[in-house]
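Budget justification note: compute hours in this period were largely spent on complex prediction jobs such as the one shown. Inputs:
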Amino acid sequence: MRRDVLTGEYFTEGDIACAEGAIAAGCRFFAGYPITPSSELAEHMAARLPEVDGVFIQMEDELGSMAAVIGASWAGVKSMTATSGPGFSLMQENIGLAIMTETPCVIVNIMRGGPSTGQPTKSGQQDVMQAKWGSHGDYEIIAVCPSTVQEMFDLTIEAFNLSEIYRVPVIVLGDEILGHLTEKLVIPQPEEIEIVERRKPPIKEGYSWFKFNPASIPAMASFGEGFKVYATGLTHDETGHPDMSPETQTKLVKYLCDKVRKNADRIVKYKEIMLDDAEIAIITYGSPVRSALSAVKRARKEGIKVGLLKLSIVWPFPEKIVKKVSEEVDTVVVLEMNYGQILREVQRVAGLERVKFLPKFGEDLHKPGEVLELVRRCKK
Amino acid sequence: MKSTIKYAAAHPLDPYLRKGMIPHIWCTGCGNGVILNCFIRAVRDLNIDVNKTVVVSGIGCIGRITGYINMDSFHTTHGRPIAFATGVKLAKPELNVVVISGDGDLFAIGGNHFIHAARRNMDLLVICANNFNYGMTGGQYAPTTPLNAKTMTSPYGNIEHPFNLVHLAWASGAVYVARWTTVHVTRLLKSIKKALTKKGFRFIEVISPCPEVYGRYNKMGDALEIIKWLKENSVIQHFTDPSKAEIELGGKITVGEFVEKEKPVYNDLILHLKRRIKEKLEKEGKRTLVKI
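Corresponding output:
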């Protein structure tokens, strides 16, 4: 029996489903620092990774965790870390390094309420913009947003695959509710799981693993294979060597952004639920999807034509579908456990007038009744 | 910055350098070249497989060294080379992983990673170029700047007590600790060779002249005068008490080996752990920690 993919049905929590998804995706290195509410993920990796010939290390802080994850990835091993708000802030420094050196890796942020120490044991979605803009400089990133324990498994695999394809750090934006929520998880047979393996450079001599073409992202060389890799956080040309010229900076930054922007249609992932005849569309992601789904079902029973657009990937922002849906309805309702982050993106695409918003400031997930009430008011 | 230098003849160390990256950015009289030279000579003398050696650096003048060494190399963020190197060594244990960085990088912003990698006995060789200040940013005081020394941020004289790096390395658990200056070329080379053949967390501090910045503010004269000063003021004493090897402005500098010992290496402990789990899995046919 395989020890990496534990095929079967389980009743387990989101943090553990995420860890199992990572192992199934081929993750064999985890570096992290304990923080509520993501510690269960690290604990599970500490128990599981040695079983599958992987390595778990508890680092001295999140700065070091993120640096170690990048080091392991350049050594050729799929690697990840998991944290929550304050730890995510500390990781931003080396998330920037991963972006600059195009290092595939996965960062799980089980969000809690902030700012600062905030609400360690409560839920929130206040780091969505930080996931996009947290490190300095211009860049694009990919962020997946699960809303069930099953998706904590599935979308973590997706996160690893996307990070290999686009050579970009991918953020899994979970939240405390999801991390600690226990529900059904089905781990499929290994052959049913699609895994993107690390691509190897075709040749050794004269090969560059930095080529600024968003349509063809080069395979990455690993340490110890005779490539004499050199990578730097400095602005570099296509040989990977430092070059401070404005031309190189322009080419590099455009490429780092465009490899996500120009491939956005391939990356984005969403679900349209009961939107065909909808007059009102709820747009949300993560745990609030659960409340939204319940509200939509109840509203439909009352004859209100409401549907749901569930965003499974928020970065790159799925502009096209949000535009399409918002044009087809009278009113758009955004639900988030923050004071308006993805809201701004929706407003940018759908316009200010038709967008209603129901914020939650942490701990308190939207109650289906509250969402229903807002939908009823939109109907009037 | 592409080289326009014409090479008269091949230098024996050329294969160890990325020639397209030369000339280097370092100032005349800087000690970093000596460190680069000693490191690649040590690798050559020991006939170490350059394809299985990774050099990691941080930010600062010496941080550029990874661009010049023709081996797998990575120029990380400020203070993080040891943490990055930890990830490399754990993911691919067969690699020799060497960190070469500066005193500000390793002991101010990266101090936490240094003490913890030493505590774990991570299998890394760390070489620190100590020039007593932040040279690249224009000469500000560092955690190694001696009391009363002048820098751009201690214009009236430094009022902070410096770290004694060999003492810190000893206290943190390093299995090999040495200090040399760039004047002690032969001894430094020998020391790097010794460290490269040992396992565990190994630390070599190299006192390195910074004539253009630190030397200028402290009126130490030109590069030659600083070299002469280092030669006359360093005292070779092996295995002395590292706590007594503090460096004071204008004082003598104790150099030599301070620690050489054996202690279980982190990677070996991981191997042992994995073996234990594997045996149990095979014997009992089930996993030990069943949370799922």
